[in-house]
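Collaborator request, handled under Task 6.
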Amino acid sequence: MKVAIVHDELMRRGGAEQVVLTMLKAFPNADVFTLAYDPNGTYPEFKQFHITASWFQRLAVNVKTMHTLYFPFAIWAMKSLKVNNYDVVIISNTHCAKYVNIDPASKVFIYTYTPFRLAWNPESYTQYINAHGIKRWVFDYVIKYLKKVDAREAQKGDYYLGMTEETSERIRKAYKVSDVMIIRPDVKCRFFSISDKPKEYFLLVSRLEYYKKADLAIKAFNKLGYKLIIVGNGTKAEELKAMSNDNIEFKKGLSNEELADLYANCKALIFPQHEDYGITPLEANASGRPVIAYGVGGIKATMIPYKDDSLKSTAIFFNEQTVKSLCRAIEKFEQLEFDPLFIKNHAEKFDEEVFISEIKEFVNKKYKETPDKKVVTEAF
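Structure tokens returned to the collaborator:
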């Protein structure tokens, strides 16, 4: 069985890119196709695979340029990228991966993290919220077009996969499909370990963008005075640094080992956003550390929230996305004791071996059910 994996873009490090690496463990001989590839911007493990980027690669010299030129050039580029002569095509996407030109004989599996945010949830972008007059009119015109294109291109899937019940419902609603197989993204537990003596700081690991709500955490820690280390980069980085007091430290470009050390020695991970899933809380759990999280979205599918026994919990949830609510959760956390081993054992349920087994089984089963679409054969 000859397999291709198509991903939106490989320009940075994030949860979706980690999922692709795990897909490549399930199908190690797969070829990878993407909008643009920056070997130094994303995970170094991708260098060992055969990666084909679209002509947009020549324009997208960095993430900022990629965003600026996305419409309409990225759409054109992906529609011109041919993925031919594969038995199976696995599409890993939020936005443009599904736009590629696929051989009709291929069996297509679309793994969607969430439907394209700009098309289906534009309010998550500050640029849209702050747009008025002619600028808002242009935004609305582009969004209308993107919805039409995105919904149409999603129909090329033979099978659909999602992360949680919540994201699966979004997929069904946006793309008018009935069945969505849930396979939860993994955490690579082998990279993380428990520290005997955690230190006196809290941790936030995130892209520094508006919808990630790092500003909420900063305001809370400015008020409380506890030490917070923020790991990440993004378009809001300088703005967030400017609003932070001296008890807040920013880091970026860390190695896997350096990040794992920060996880292991933090008091808890702060997770203030409404996320579709969230790998970082599971990475904290794999290090034996609890999470203080806004209790909506994907976090509900991965954490055991504190109710009456903190030793059988992996997280504390706060119910309002406000500074006051987050501060209350942090202060409550300071009064409780958590069990690092219980937390780590919970994370093992989401280990990459589970994901590998589930996606291999699903793809192989569905492929064998439709031998008429077979075009080439190759052991993997």
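The cover message to the collaborator said: "The first strand starts at residue 3 and ends at 7. Residues 3-186+351-373 form a domain with the Rossmann fold fold (CATH 3.40.50.2000). Please let us know whether this matches your experimental observations."
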